[in-house]
Specification:
Number of strands: 29
Structural class: alpha+beta
Largest sheet: 5 strands, antiparallel
Strand content: 15-25%
Helix content: 25-40%
Low-confidence stretches: 53-59, 281-302, 535-539, 585-616, 696-717, 768-814
Number of helices: 22
Length: about 800
Amino acid sequence: MFGCQTSETGLFVTQLADGIMGMSAHDATLPKQMYNKGKLEHNLFTLCFRRELSVSKQGVSAGVMTLGGIDTRLDSSPMVYAKNVASTGWYTVFVKNIFVRSNGGQSARADDELEQVVMKIPVDISSMNGGKGVIVDSGTTDTYLHKDLAKSFGEVWYEVTKRSYSNTGIKLSRDELLRLPTVLIQLRAYDEFPDPSIPPESTTGLVGPKLDPSSPHDVLLAIPATHYMEYSPSKDLYTSRLYFTESRGGVIGANAMQGHDVLFDWENGRVGFAESSCEFKEGENMIDPITGKVIDAGEVGENRNCVLGRPSLTYECRESVTVDDCLDDPNKNVAGFEKWTSVVLSSGTSSGMSCEDALMNNWAEEEKPEVSCDGSGLCFELRPCEVSCAEVMTGESGKAPLTPASPTEGGDICEDGLWGACDHTCEQSKIASTLMSDGLCHEVDELRQTRDCHIDACGRLDPCRVPFVVHAIIALRGGKAPLWNRRAEEVLADALAKTVDSEEADPGNEVLFGAGDVKVLLATSWYKSDLVGAEGVGEEDEEIGMKIVVEISIFNANAKFPEIVDVEQEEEEEEENMLSMEEEDADSNTTFLEKFEKVEGKVEEKVKKVVKELPHGHPLSTCEESDFYPLAKTALDVHAELGREYFLSDMISNMKKYEILEVAYSEKSPFSDILANNELARESQVITSWTIKTDVGGGKVHDHSWDSNFRKFFDKDNILNYVTNIPLMTMALALSLIICAIGLCCGCSCGRRKRSGRNQERVALIAEKKKGKYAKISSTRSLDEGEELGLESSSEYKDNIDSSEGDVEMMGEC
């Protein structure tokens, strides 16, 4: 895999890239080796190339490489898949058409269909895809297409630009560059029968029915002039790096991959393309929407630990014992426990530290309390303590009454009623607590809540629970990404769900999703250069707001969850244990914690053992094929709502109604400006939205791509129409009779040939014998009963049986 390099020559010395790493579909490459060693869950990787007009020897922030998965946080369109037509070696796609779009545009989706005219270049498909085929190769800087395209491409280019096409440098203004044609390449789709939940007419990156009605789900790769025209700062010239020189096949090089997140998926035989900025702004932090903290690169990966909020005191020591414990001696101290509750902020990964271990990690070995988690986003500690019987009997501690206290500057704050992580039971919880004068956070009992959710541990990792997710990019003018926190996420999720499921938007009042189904993947700054058609942006790009990438889970209510324990049996055992404990003598030395362990220990250990052995650390559900079709329609309904003209205005109005308005309007809120200024609300927009089918990237639960056509054909009403259609049934009957006749004849003929072959084998066997007497095989004579080959025959034997002897044939009739 690795070697020692002692010298460099040629381009490796003079160019920016000073080495090559092989990433093809070969066993010796780094991704395959890591997959074979179990370091990657999937045999795939993505390369995300930033949009850059020039490079230098000092280098640029070129983008992101992701091994073993896909990071969609910076994508601005869905990942669409082209078929990889090669089983090994280069990743190879099948090019079906080449288009040229006038007046440019950075995206596969036109900015203005009236002004941007698309013209088709004649393509000889066999020549274009001949030889090694058209490979997608990041190691090739430029793009090379078949030489037969040169003439027709040049003619269309001249018609659009009034310039002759060449690969020599030309001087262009920024505006002239942006108006040069965008080259569009149509690639054969990965799925022959595509997912019905993805509409090709509105999905960026798909050809759509206008360009190709026969293959609307093919991939459309856009190469704008800002990518194929290379700028030379020293000469102030732009040179086209799109060449028409190949005799067979071609190369889609790195310049065509700019502005795209490209998936190389050897595991599933496909190449994916998603439009993306691939750009982490210099000096800008990515915010973790769960914790509200800056994402540390070291925290991104498989081994993420459970993250817990600050523990809150649920009930005190004296509340864990009763007066009966003090009847023998009212002056003694009795053992009890304090119950502390923590909210799970992030459940982490199965290979990281569990929430129970995270709680225990804060204690010395001799002080470790009993800990447990309830599966709905709450974890508990039972800390041993002692309390005087006087305090138990009177209910008073003898200390000064507790009063609320103000948190110290920079100190931890108590839980403030925000929802925790969604656990594997598909529930999440929140608690609220108050910092009191004893320096402890005391939980407010009546404010504890639990709700349904379908994200995090109960999200897309389980394709039967969540078969579809809808991604949307929402741009809020005047929003402040650096102020993003957990409360901001709740404000957004609550307003988003209420707006989509409002009575005005959905007169049938069907709930498409709830606030617990919304997950914010990324909150980042929105810059002026991000606007479609933005021109004249200098080195100092202007920050105009905030972009939020949200993921909405479409939950399957019919999913069947596997039982990890027999609940009824465990409850019966628990009741028996409780009765057994109540029958113990009053002077028993058994402590409360030991009793608690007897009741809970077996169940907890059983659950932990089963969950630990399951993929992703929680049980996967099962489902039926029929569950998915109404859910695909639900995903389309969500898209329709997000595309509604006044959707964002309604959503921002719902944000204003959020229960804690003073927080939303405060200077610490990322929404304060947009909530106070209606003009900013009108300038905000839903940039795009798309649907992702979760089983595609995560584990191939079912292949549903052809099911819609199959189910449509065998629909009950359609079958009734077929049966009652007399001409159709007559034709079907005649066709069946013809097939039967052909089958009968073929069967007789095959049988005749088979029997003839057996006789020829017998003749060959006789010909090979060197000794003994042989009988001549007659074409019309069969052996008499009891007669054997080679006995009592004086007829001569011929090594070669020629045609004069006649064919060996079995006589008979069909």
